[in-house]
């Protein structure tokens, strides 16, 4: 735990069945993976692969692509072959696209039985094709696509309704001897989503995909997702996550990685320890913090950088940081592990921190 000298606390995971999504394990003792969906037209192979490369660089482990048309299905072999991370085909209405995705070499398929007509009749075929391909299937429900029968029975998309629907879908596959299933139950309300996942975790050992659906724009959606995921992941529930934002997929991935690293469930990369500022400030601290964050974006080594607004509480409070600056009167004191090593003009603070970080990784392995 930072500042205590103790090992970081890590939530104890609920043990689920382990699946392989391509070369990424999901469930069991596998690290919790981060996923997102592309927003390009899947049929546009170049644009889709470009976006996959961007989200992979941001920390995405698994990518999902929508397959609403024949042209999208036809693009799957090229995308599956060239993607650096496993590809999940997201199928809503057409079972034949499930078979196309399996033939294309996709690492998993997401189906929404509520949207596939005569799904029950096709389950056996889908299960045996997926089994032959060694590919898991993600099932589950969003509050918005819940079966009318269950909505009526439960009086709305309650946690019990979501769980009943998901377990019914799983049972269709189980009847055909297929258990390589991941389940997602999603709701736009974080606490309803939490209650549904707790219930599901009690009732089955399938790996769970966490998501707050329609979470909204970046700020609101990140906080709603972090709120729900933190409760569940803190209880050991959840094997893979997707932060759904009305924002580019890279932002969704960054939010997901940040949530996991905040819970010590993923190694931290860049962490900025910065003070909120107060009446002692003599610099534009928020601007400086943004400049430091931008300058270190993509820095390839784990690093904790402190940006403190004054010298009163600077190096002392931030001694857990690898490097840092405490500002005052047009200058910045650059410090390393709590010891001031030089003072630079305010305009040179970011440059000095970059220099210090570089020399630190050349001589030491931070943290
Ligand atoms: Fe205020 Fe200084 Fe603390 Fe920042 S470090 S909040 S400027 S006292």
From TrEMBL:
IspG TIM-barrel domain residues: 16-256
Top-tier EC class: oxidoreductase
Residues binding [4Fe-4S] cluster, per UniProt: 275, 278, 310, 317
SUPFAM superfamilies in alphabetical order: Dihydropteroate synthetase-like, Nitrite and sulphite reductase 4Fe-4S domain-like
Catalytic activity: (2E)-4-hydroxy-3-methylbut-2-enyl diphosphate + oxidized [flavodoxin] + H2O + 2 H(+) = 2-C-methyl-D-erythritol 2,4-cyclic diphosphate + reduced [flavodoxin]
Residues annotated as domain IspG C-terminal: 271-357
Keywords annotated in UniProt: 4Fe-4S, Iron, Iron-sulfur, Isoprene biosynthesis, Metal-binding, Oxidoreductase
InterPro entries named in the record: Dihydropteroate_synth-like_sf, IspG_bac, IspG_bac-typ, IspG_C, IspG_TIM, NO2/SO3_Rdtase_4Fe4S_sf
Cofactor dependency: [4Fe-4S] cluster
Gene3D superfamilies reported in the protein's UniProt record: Dihydropteroate synthase-like, Sulfite Reductase Hemoprotein, domain 1
Pathway: Isoprenoid biosynthesis; isopentenyl diphosphate biosynthesis via DXP pathway; isopentenyl diphosphate from 1-deoxy-D-xylulose 5-phosphate: step 5/6
Cofactor binding, per record: Binds 1 [4Fe-4S] cluster.
Function recorded in the entry: Converts 2C-methyl-D-erythritol 2,4-cyclodiphosphate (ME-2,4cPP) into 1-hydroxy-2-methyl-2-(E)-butenyl 4-diphosphate.
Family the entry assigns: Belongs to the IspG family.
Identification of the protein by name: 4-hydroxy-3-methylbut-2-en-1-yl diphosphate synthase (flavodoxin)
Naturally occurring in which organism (per UniProt): Lipingzhangella rawalii
């Amino acid at each position: 735990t930072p500042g205590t000298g103790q090992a970081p606390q890590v939530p104890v995971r609920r043990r689920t069945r382990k699946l392989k999504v391509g070369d990424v394990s999901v469930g069991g003792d596998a690290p919790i993976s981060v996923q997102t969906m592309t927003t390009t037209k899947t049929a546009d192979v170049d644009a889709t692969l470009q976006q996959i490369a961007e989200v992979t660089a941001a920390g995405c482990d698994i990518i999902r692509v929508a397959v609403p048309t024949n042209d999208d299905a036809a693009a799957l072999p090229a995308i599956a072959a060239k993607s650096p991370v496993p590809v999940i085909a997201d199928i809503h209405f057409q079972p034949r696209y499930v078979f196309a995705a399996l033939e294309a070499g996709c690492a998993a398929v997401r189906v929404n039985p509520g949207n596939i007509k005569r799904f029950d009749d096709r389950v056996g075929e889908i299960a045996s094709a997926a089994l032959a391909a060694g590919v898991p299937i993600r099932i589950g429900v969003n509050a918005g696509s819940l079966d009318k029968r269950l909505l009526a029975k439960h009086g709305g998309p309650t946690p019990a309704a979501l769980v009943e629907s998901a377990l019914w879908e799983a049972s269709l596959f189980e009847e055909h001897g297929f258990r390589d299933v991941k389940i997602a139950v999603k709701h736009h309300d974080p606490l309803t989503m939490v209650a549904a996942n707790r219930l599901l975790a009690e009732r089955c050992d399938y790996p769970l995909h966490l998501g707050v659906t329609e979470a909204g724009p970046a700020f609101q959606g990140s906080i709603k997702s972090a709120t729900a995921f933190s409760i569940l992941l803190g209880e050991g529930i959840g094997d893979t996550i997707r932060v759904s934002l009305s924002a580019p997929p890279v932002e969704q991935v960054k939010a997901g990685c940040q949530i996991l690293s905040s819970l010590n469930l993923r190694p931290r990369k860049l962490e900025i320890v910065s003070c909120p500022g107060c009446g002692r400030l003599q610099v534009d601290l928020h601007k400086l913090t943004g400049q430091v964050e931008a300058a270190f974006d993509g820095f390839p080594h784990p690093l904790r950088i402190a940006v403190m607004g004054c010298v009163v509480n600077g190096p002392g409070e931030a001694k857990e940081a690898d490097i840092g600056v405490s500002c005052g009167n047009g200058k910045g004191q650059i410090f390393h592990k709590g010891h001031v090593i030089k003072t630079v003009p305010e305009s040179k603070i970011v440059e000095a921190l970059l220099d210090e970080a570089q020399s630190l990784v050349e001589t030491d392995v931070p943290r």
